[in-house]
Queue: 4 jobs
Job 1
Amino acid sequence: MSNRKTGRAAASSSPPTSPASPVTSARRDPHRKLEYLERRLQAAPAGAELVALVQAHAEEVMALINGQRRVAATWQRNQGPAFVRAIVDSGFDESSRIPKEVNGVTLEELLLRMAEALQRHGSTGLRHAIADHALVALRWSRECHSLQDLFGRIRDDAEEVPA
Amino acid sequence: MSAPSREHMLRQMRAMEAILPQVQAELERFPNVEAVTVGAKERAQVATPQLAFQVYVTVKKPPSELAQEDRIPETVLGFPTDVILIQEASPTEDDDKYRPLLGGTQLQQSAGEGTLGIIAIATAGSAAPAGDPVILTNSHVAPTNGKLVGQPKSPCDCWCCACCDVGRIVDTQIGPAGAVTVDGAIATLNEGMRYSHEIVEIGAVRGSVSATTLVPGTDRVKKRGRTTELTHGILSSAGAGTRRGDGVTFVNQIRVTSLPGGPPFQLGGDSGAVLLDSQDRVIGLMHAAVLPAGTPAFASRIEDVMALLNVRIPVMGTPGAVPLSTAATPSAAAERHAALAALGQRLHAIEAAGAWWELVERHRDEVRDLVQAHRGVSLAWHRYQGPAFLSHYMKTATEAEYQVPEEIGGMAPQNLLVGMAAVLEQHGSPELAADIREHYLDALQLSRGCRRIDHALDRLERERRAGPAARSHEEPAPPGPPGGVRRTSHREPARA
């Protein structure tokens, strides 16, 4: 995920054709899409922490997917690229349905198997992150049907957390 | 007229063995004759102190139905014959727990159960390290190489899953090919397992000896198995053949008959027991009997067993020594069993915990098999410290203040659960995979903050009283990212 600074730069270099809807503009520019998603997540404290978590481990996860044979095999075998493509293609419209199954593999199965592969081959920090967050990520993948659902769950979960 | 002396019988036996090839050539031309050997003349399937050439036939007809030339002569070269019908013998199968491990007790592998014959010693060439103690039993009792065996059971009746496993099969054979003489298996002992070379009710053994040195029809033999326990019989032959119900034909077997009017020598579950002579020397390894009579019974000669599996029987103690079983030592395992039983009772009293227990019961055997035999599952179980976590959680059942470490070897319980859910969902049966998918998130949720088994039970009990709505507020650690991120920074270093 791009950081906020990069996102702004990308946005300024590709001015939206319609200033009315950020979703519409996001559909036309991948950088804008990610920036929009990030902004939405940053709006809630829990979401901001999720963004921080992803930023902390994204580089390692990408390196493992691209350079570690077994992780790459798990990613490919469980339709990881197809899920990413399907999600990006949805245009990040909040009401668009998140694909729950691609070629017989469910999103939850992909995440569970990737969690196993990543904790097996990843760093101690990544393993700790999986131990701490796998439950909530897997639950969201099971229960959320759209980005709207996901944002709602992040807000609700934050409200349930005792101070 | 007094019975002939033992020395006289031995001389007669050697004389008969000297002409045995000639007698075999003479008698094996008769229809249905499978084998001829020197043994005792049997009456009503009981060996008598009279030597004879035993003629094993596949079909036994009354003399009136046979042509004169097809009748087996009553005597050959001056010695009597005894026509014995080859009956289908059944491999025998069989509950007390014995620690230290002793011979003559129940042994089980998931595919079969029988008797732990004796703790033998591995020799050079064995699948076990030379000099190490090994469990000796039958191959049909423990048929799978690499799998665990339990005493008395594997898995046991309590829910600890592993307390009764005593060793692992390293060599299991019905062989050698071509002329099968042995149905045997050996298992190495788990680290720290206490054992004795003694046999329950018999005591110390005095090494081994070939059954061919004994006199058929005269010499008494005995065995201790898990079903009929200590029984005595009479050696009928040390060179008999038998065809078992599972289709295996054995040669050079020890044939034993019950004492006149005595109980069956061997029944289902006695398989794997060792056969001893009157001086407590091991002469064979029991593996079959004609059922339901329990006589005659069959054993592999111990010299064949020792040669095939590369083991020896130790000489120990003194004849008539008091069996160790009469002086059983108190065991830490018994304490643990009692604590686990109490925990099990509580578990059954909580409805939600009962449902978890049903899941465990439903899939325990399959999961054990996968952990033991499937490379991927086994690697995951060990990589994520499954044995260590299981052991620590078990310890919390017996020690009031004990807590499972947050991490073992860099792995948290949640890493173990994620890893095992992934591999079991992929490699398990459709039923197991379906239950994993349905329940693994609940297991992950339950594991958070529960560092003792009874804490998990307390939580289930509180949730049952408060209803599902209370669930998210009951947890010491919140499930969402904010709490999780904070918790990561407070992680303690591994302590185990």
Note: The radius of gyration of chain A is 16 Å.
Job 2
Amino acid sequence: MSAYARLLDNLRIALPGALDGTIQQELFNTVDELCRTANAHRAPFAITTVVGQSIYPVVVSGFVTLTVMYASDPGIVFDRDDGTATLASPPEDVRTIALELSLGPDTLELPADWLPDTVWERQYQALLHGVLGRMMGQIAKPYSDRITGAYHARRFRNLMAMARHDANTGGAPGAQRWRYPRHGR
Amino acid sequence: MTTLATVGSYILEARRILQDEVQPYRYPDADLVAALNIALMESRRLRPDLFLGQFDPLPQVAANNDPVPIDPMYRPTFLYYVVGMTELRDSEDTKDARAVTLLNKFLGQLMTPRA
């Protein structure tokens, strides 16, 4: 049984009277928030430079590129609006620049169809609690339950904070959480 | 076995509960279909999620073969409404209390877990 099928079954059991379409809608919202807030979905990307060209598209089909988490070329600047990366200076040779991108959903299709297995496995609990919190927070439904919904929403926020920490530290245990403020760097 | 997937199956089941299975019928098909359409309108107000992907225009049904675009989980709920609405009319063979019970069951099943 896939993680998605297991998640859907768990949600159906916990939410009597909920339609699959509504669950999938809230699953999309949860995945979207998790990606945008915690950079939960990251993927490698490579730019092969062209001599004299500074600007390169950073586009992954089916996703929105939220930010560049890591670049092997430190001078690179990512423009989120244009979806382009600009090098500090035009390259004088052909080389490959490795990026790690944080991606968000750009489709309303089922998350099962596009969200990688790694995210399902790592963020299973966050997705479960996130959807439960959102569904139970809806008003006047058979599965409405403000108190239990608030509990799940709180668990989701905690798990999202852990996911964000993992994204920032590479999941290393005991890695430092503080950093100099931007003006001090 | 009925699956309440089409207008015709709603009419059939409603007649069974209403004990109106012998022609000439007490309740014409058109009245039962009208009650089903009112149920769709009422549920759009209470449970918009039932109409995910079909908000505009609001689904309406007419012919016996028309599918009723409701999740199987909620089809009996709509049957209760059809029977309840039909029994609301002021006639000798209907009982107001039964009609109110059925209409309340419709509301309860749409909005609470225990109805």
Note: The mean pLDDT of chain A is 89.
Job 3
Amino acid sequence: MIDIYAVVLLALGPLLIALMMGIDRRITARMQNRVGPPLLQPFYDLAKLFRKDPRSTNRTQVSFALAALALQIGAWCVFALGGDLLVAFFVSGAASLAVALGAFSTRSAYSQLGAQRELLQVLAYEPILFLAIIALAWYNGTFMADLQDRNMLVILPLVVLAFIPIALIKMQKSPFDLATAHQELVSGVYVEYSGPYYGILKLAQWFELALLFGILSLFFWDGTLWMSVLGKLAMLIVIYFATILIDNSTARLTRWDMVRLTWTYGFIFVGVNVLFVFILQEVTA
Amino acid sequence: MAFDVVTDIYRWAENGTPVDTMDGGWLVLGLIILPAVLSLLCMTFHSGRSPRWVVIIAVAAIWAMVAAVAYLMLQPGYVQYPIPGTLADYDLAIFVLDLALAVFFAYVGWTRRNWPIVAMAVTIFIMTVYLDVAFQADQVDRLLLDRFGLLMLIITNVVGGTICLFALKYMEHDKAKGRFFALMLLFLAVMNGAVLSMELTWLFFFWEGTTFCSYALIAHERTKEAYKAADRALLMTLFGALCFSVAMVLLASAKIPFHNLMALQGSSQYLPFLAIPLLMVAAFTKSAQLPFQSWLVGAMVAPTPVSALLHSATMVNLGVYLAYRLWPLISEFSSLQTLLLLVGGTTFLASTVLALRQSDAKRVLAYSTIGTLALIFMSLGVSSDYGPAAAVLLLTSHAVAKAILFMTVGAIKHETGSQDVEDMEGLLRERPFLAYSLYLGVFLMLLPPFGVFAGKLILVEALAEQPWAAFIVAIGFAGMIVYYGKWLGRTLVDKGSPSPMQRTSNGITLPLGFLIVLGISLVLLTVPFLQQMLQVEYMVLLGNLLWPPGTGWWELPLDGGLLPLYALLALMALAFVLMTRWVRRPEQATTAYACGEKMDITITGQYLYSEANETKFRRAFEIIGVLLVAALLLVPYIIEEVLA
């Protein structure tokens, strides 16, 4: 039975993310007094990109786009099949490196700047995501995704909140959309990609976000499977809505403000939460 | 004289006398004697003549001997080979050589007007004499080979030998080749001696031998800069030697046998207990941990083969080796473990923060070495039994990866005249072989599921029991991706006006190619390798079962997790095949779009913070390091003995 769930999850994860992106665009449009595109627009976009002629500036660039996709799919598989969370996290981190390297390989000012910012984003969010996973595994005693069955929302609520800046960076949303800033860098790391190769990177991002929200979903569990799934979805929707709200109400920060903000916010939230639970355990024991 | 090797430890243990012996002891001894003798032969090559054939014969011979020893050692059931006989008679020779080294160091300090060096060398001299006069040496075997020793022998000789072969090409224009290769071979000899010594006085002699070789090799160019770096290295490693000899005096006065430090367990006095922290400080100096990190970074002025040898095959591994031998003792005291985690964690963080600012490729690699060694120390400080497995994996994979990286940087310097990251623009197009070996080296250091990554993962999952330490290393892991990513990024982009492709000479590609094959096979054989090295019932100074029995060959068990090793390797291979198939399809290449703007841009790297801040950060980390070392010497005793 578990295996069937795993396979369903495997296929469903990225599709759900794409659907969420469609909803996101509608909500954002409504917030800006527009009608917005159809709900399935992300799928239409991707289909159109893959129908275009392949054009690239060099072969290296394409290699790294493919590597990014393969690694993100691998990371998602590790997670969806109930594997080790840290392995999935590090494999996904390697994919971020591949995206940066792909952008580095083209002699274009925007692409280069985007790549350096992409690395800086990794520096900003990776430590926090890492600590969030450590906190989860520390309390549950295991890193395996399929063994996480405790309601951590009440035990580690601040860690859940620490996911918001991570989600903002990974979804390329304001105030942290530095690497792909469309106004100043003409979408930075993506600027030299077009057609199917751009599609590959888009698809890689679906898998990346699926992993991020997948890890976040582990923080909720409630006795029965259906209640758990509903609860998980509700939690994800709340966090997603929070990011849309922040995206539409803030301006882009500078590079240093991004690093400073995510580090202080993340370290304090995760640290205080872990310390609090630790003291509580010591007192009750 | 005949030195016998006991091959059947079980019967030996049962009956108290060796039953099956074989004439193989000379092989193990040969690993010390042969390189030392050939090193003397190299000294006879004067005025720029190259001792080419001596080096090639030496490397071939030590490889053959290591292969033979490994074959004997890896027979099922054989765990350790004491090398008995009359070696204790040579204690006098060791004593005299010890004194000679101390006098030499004092002389160096005198000529350089460096009084701390003189003071420390004289103190070491006095203490060596005192140890010899006041205490009777135990009648035990002086040398012993076990599986961990074998692993160290393989790393030292295989990786070190390859570096010597590489140096033949790299040093072709050097004026003092005889002296250079003599020191390189001597380094291998003393390193072999160090990992074979089972008794502290002998270990101390070989320990000092590596100090001598590293000093002389760093000063090889005989420029003002080289002498300055060599002095610094000597100052710091002599401080370690001083700690080492104080520890020996403390142990001797408490009647702790030098071949069995586990006897310390029962001791509740401060002075013998202090010996463990002192030995740990000695290990920190060799392995360039905070606050002693600066000598290794300064040593980058030496020719690149020297850096490669110091960083991958010899010097820095010795500190980790000592800590590994002390691990059973350290694991008895949670305060020692905590401080080891603190020193390792802080050093790892410092190494990453400082590496972000470097543009000299060798300095980036130096900080990366310091960081990886810090991770090894942390592995020995976690309270999980998986710690030593992580340490072994990190040590081995790092040795191969770092040798590849240093040799590549050396080759780039040799071919282009610069080792600055900013000058490596267009490397992929101009020198594809060197670019690919650079990428492989970095991937071995960084990417899942390669060796260093696997070791890192074992360590991190063990850290889940001590999450506070995870907070120290969190930024470090992300920082590693950034500083290596920046570097690779520079090599990928074509120059504004690309030059034609260059061929790399065979003297460089052959040694590099050999290490690349070695690195890849090490990744493929991670689990069998760990099983061979760790799944044994008994090791010298080690009582615990280090590797869970009955693990599958296809995955790496972790503390609370699992690394699907071969699934990830298959993914990597698939990605590689897909890449090469897809991108080789002919298609029209377009010029960069760049929003329609001009193409003749100058690309420079991003260094995140200013040089003034670099000095500030380094000082701050060094102060923290000094405080941690002071705490290491005092706090564990107070916690373990006074409060308990």
Note: Chain B touches chain A through 62 residues (CB under 8 Å).
Job 4
Amino acid sequence: MSSVIRTTILSAALIAAAVTSPAQIAVRGDMVYTMAGTPIRDGVVLVRDGKIERVGPAAQLAIPANYKSYRAKVVTPGLIDAHTVIGLTGYLNQPQDQDQVERSAPMQPELRAVDAFDPAERLIEWVRSFGVTTLHTGHGPGILVSGQTMIIKTDAKTAEEALVPAAMVAATLGDGARDTRTPGSRAKAIALLRAELIKAQEYRAKAEKAEKGKEAPRDIRTEAFVRVLKGELPLLVTVNRANDIASAIRLGKEFGLKLVLDGVAEVQLAMEQIQAAGYPVIIHPTMARPGGETENLTMEDAAKLRAAGIPFALQSGFEGYVPKTRVVLFEAAVAAANGLTFEQALASVTLDAAKLLGIDKRVGSIETGKDADLAMYDGDPFEYASHCVGVLINGKLASSSVH
Amino acid sequence: MKTRLLSILAGVTSLAMAQTPPVAFTGARLISMAGAEIPNGVLVVEKGRIVAVGPADSVTIPTNARRVDAAGKVIMPGLIDSHSHVGGADGGDGSSPIQPDVRVLDSINVRASSIQRAQAGGVTVANVMPGSGHLSSGQTLYIKLRDGKTVDDLLITLGDGRIAGGLKMANGTNPRRAAPFPGTRAKAAALVREQFIKAQEYRDKIRAANGDATKMPPRDLRMETLVEVLDGKRVVQHHTHRHDDILTVLRLQKEFGFKVVLHHTSDAWMVAEEIAKAKVPVSLIVIDSPGGKLETKDSTLENGAALEKAGVVVGFHTDDGVTDSRFFLRAAAISVRAGMSREKALYGLTMANAKILELDSRIGSLEKGKDADFILLSGDPLSTYTKVIETWIDGVRVFNRNNPKDRVYAVGGVGASHDDGDMHSDEWEK
């Protein structure tokens, strides 16, 4: 094939691609918050084949003629919700769309989020329309060990598209772990967990020593706990009261677990212990309702974590009633009004969340080579009256609905 | 004990302060809800009332006034919440579906932390409602969120000596239960009609007695309340979500001629024209995401805009604890995001609710002669970054963000949501 013909075919292919679903996109923003360096005034993000190609000031980065262009006042990385349950919980809040907790046994780490996730759930479309592009979702709080979580983009058509199909194992300590059968108390919950983890230690030791062909029968529940012991699956512990935070840390240290503390309403009463333990925190939604175990939470908890140098991210969490989900954009906005700077609040739902979840090589900032997940706003994204006007996921327009 | 005693004394002192020299706030942007916003305004309050308000160059500040420099701040009327559950009030029990004899008045805890948090959100007046699990769960109470020792300190007394309040009613799925509660929507309407017809007959007997005590029917607390409703002396505050349930309320209202306010109204956007035609106001809840309750599945943030367009009077409410009183301003702001005008959104936090509670001659705007209920804000009322700095009721400051004890109620923390009877105190300032 002559090079002339080859070039012609290539150009035709490019034109066809541009007409149907443009592989090349340029997004220009009056302000582009890359989360990698200072924000760029009048910036341009070039997108090619689903990845960020280049980013820089418009004065230095010309938009090629064949790029489809979008323009917005503010451009940010696509937002990351560091902990939610949507896709397993649905907006109707009826038994058929609530799959976040299975109550037949107090500990079921073998339950996989990918086997329950509904990518067509309306709540996912809802949060996407505010700029949320990545979810850490799955089994919820409300039982001692509810199951696994996963990480997936908000435009996924199937659970197979998950970035991380098994991300963490979700656990709950405190009143939330109580069951009508067992555990009926705080100490019993810890006793049950220790017994399972010791069983998993023994299972692991046996499996490592077993001769080929003489392996013990498989036990998928214990296998999941072995993955927790190995640190392959962090234990995501939803915990609010200071004494329960201490219990979580005690358990984490005994078994050398990778722990992520979640909720943590009494963070201000346990700050030193958390700092010393070195565990990251996915803090409760800024506007979470105080009451019961969460009665002492504050709107400034994110700011306090930041000041203490503890890695943290914001979450939408689990909502039992109305609204059936929160939106991390709104929670970051109120955190920005309560002690975090604008960029710190934005980081808590972008780059800091990506780092905490271990996905920062792909998402969380606008940098060459990362996934082209972008959110566009018609003003300060944290202002109540601003709108999200467009969302790109993997370089494709995923939302243009404006609420 | 000592702390408690000091708190009470401080309360008495601040009440007394309302009697002493006038206070003049200068330099603030005034959003009076009675005319255009005033960039550099003066507000003068004395003896619990507003005595002067207007642009700096048009108001003469009394020489004995204590001047407060409010430059850079915004002053607007105290927020009025037309549907709240602060104070942990309850209503009727499981004995019957219609209990207009039951009063919220007899159940409210004035020391509840929810009242302190509502003050921190800028709320000065709230319609405290019993629940929606009955066709009528009882009489509501319009309270001023003063720092009080008993509920009597929070009451609003009307010109005729009655205590201000409405009647809670509800339809849709919440009141559906086993008999004697209704099992269907039509049964719910039938039970309500039956009681209102009884009330008409009771009223006829009273009228026929023409003041002759021997001819009066025996006293019936339920009927007496319903007669107040029929006579237009007590407004029905009606929980309703679905479009057909909204129309059922309007149908009953037309049959019996009572005054009614539609509450929550998730499907309002579907029947906005019908609501406008009935000239009935709406007390709207603003939930920032969908779902959670089947009956509200079609709720939208655009409800405020749709009702405004149809010409309906729209007030907002928190339904506290469904939404948090500290985010009441946010309800208006995100309605603006969804198409409502700034003017009507602010109206919905103030004057619209004053009308809904029929207290608009006393509260809802900054006008000479009205109650000195107002808030100082750090910036624009519809901005995320704005904080309520002070809340004043009847010329008394009940919340001051610069007081660390009050600040805890604003941002949360140990004690902010714990009901141990802790009261606001001005001790820190002394």
Note: The longest helix of chain B spans residues 185-209.
